[in-house]
Amino acid sequence: MEQLSLSILGASSAIPLSNRSPSAQFLGIGNEFFLIDCGEGTQVKLRQHRIGFGRIKHILISHLHGDHFYGLIPLLTTLQLLDRHAALHIYGPEKLEELVRHQLELTESKISYPLHFHALDPDRKTCIFENKHLEVHSFPLRHGITCFGFLFQEKPLPRKMLKEELEKYDIPVAEIRRIKAGSDWIDANGKRIPNEELTEASAAPMSYAYCTDTLPVKHLHRYFKGVDLLYHEATFLSSEKDRALQTNHSTAAQAAEIAEICKAEQLLIGHFSVRYKDFHGLLAEAQSVFPKTLIAGEGLHFSLDRKSRELKIERENSYRG
User: Fold this and answer.
1) Confidence grade of residue 317 (pLDDT, cut at 50, 70, 90)
2) Cα torsion angle, 264, 23, 5, 56, sign
3) Which residues contact 284 (CB under 8 A, 6 or more apart)?
4) Could you give the angle at the alpha carbon of 20 between the alpha carbons of 17 and 23, nearest 5°?
5) Which of 79, 161, 186, 195 has a 20 to 30 Å separation from 316 between CA atoms?
6) How far apart are CA 64 and CA 92, in angstroms?
């Protein structure tokens, strides 16, 4: 995958409205796909975004407040009805497995596909998924209950061979992998050719960080720095700062301050209180601190090209099937 792809399925806080849904995002990065949080109605939003249910192999649940996971049981049972056979991995707080399995048992709902739960460490940054291209980490946030953020980080790509140098020094194919990994080349005359003359750097790896319900975490930069895209909750305006503190949430200005501290390239804000009928004030407040801020609007699709680093924004078409 040459792009980081992010679909906003829901970005409202607490109460679903007719035109606003609770938290859920679908992320594609490094040829892997992740459903991040699963608020009420998520499976309907997946259909509206034309996201095939078979693409879901990993579900990450940040915490056990209902607006972040009440859509999970319906989705699991729908996958059963669709005759799923592939394994599904679910990452979240320790009590999530007990909660899900208890509901399935009480409702006599049979899940025949493999269901694997991964309990997250509430005290430290932890690698929870890794393949040869990508690492995913969880890290603790500051909410009223155990809550996690998630970092998706591509691994550095190998350097690219310069074709003209490859031909000039008649380098065997068997040596290309070693040179792309950073080794120098010694030619037939015993002369060492520096790697920098034989290769060029590949595009920088892409990264995304998801920080939902939380008070501002001033040391967040210890978990990540310089991500291409940061999603941070911004439930309230600064005029409701006391309410934000009382409910363990952040204001738009605080989210922007965190983006600045973490040196994010771009900030997305969401999880807005239903008291706000539009988001212009929230956006203006965040942009006054961190100009490269956008609204993580429901129905929006963000894509980041690895080479150009250009962030494109599209609105998903409604599901017609």
Assistant:
1) low
2) positive
3) none
4) 110
5) 79
6) 9
At 205, list the tokens.
């790896």
Instruction: Give the relative orientation of helices 95-106 and 72-81 as an angle to the nearest 10 degrees.
Output: 60
- Phi, psi angles (nearest 5°) of residue 7: -105, 130
Token look-up 């930069």 returns 221
Specify whether the CB–CB gap between 223 and 258 falls below 8 A. Answer: no
Cross-strand pairs, 5: 28, 303
Q: With contact defined as beta carbons under 8 Å apart, do 286 and 252 qualify? A: yes
Helices of type H across the chain = 42-48, 72-81, 95-106, 163-168, 176-180, 195-198, 241-246, 252-261, 280-287
Distance of CA 105 to the CA centre of its chain: 31
* Residues classed as catalytic: 67
Neighbour count for residue 180 (Cβ, 10 Å): 17
Q: Write out the two tokens for 309.
A: 């680093």
Give pLDDT, residue 1.
59
pLDDT tens column, 173-229: 888 888 888 898 888 788 898 888 888 888 889 999 999 999 999 999 999 999 999
* Cα separation values, 240 from 59, 160, 251, 268, Å: 32, 51, 8, 20
In 300-321, which positions are buried (b, 16+ CB within 10 angstroms) versus exposed (e)? bbbbbebeeeebeeeebeeeee
* Token output for 147: 């809550």
Strand blocks (E) in 192-278: 192-193, 199-200, 207-211, 229-233, 267-270
Q: Could you report the per-residue pLDDT of 277-313, keeping only the tens digit for each?
A: 999 999 999 999 999 999 999 999 999 998 888 999 9
Tell whether the torsion through CA atoms of 215, 219, 224 and 229 is positive or negative.
positive
148-154 and 134-140 beta bridge pairing: antiparallel
Q: What element of type H or E holds 104?
A: helix 95-106
Sheet architecture: strand order including 24-29: 115-119, 88-92, 58-60, 32-36, 24-29, 3-10, 300-305, 311-315
Cβ neighbours of 178 (radius 10 Å): 13
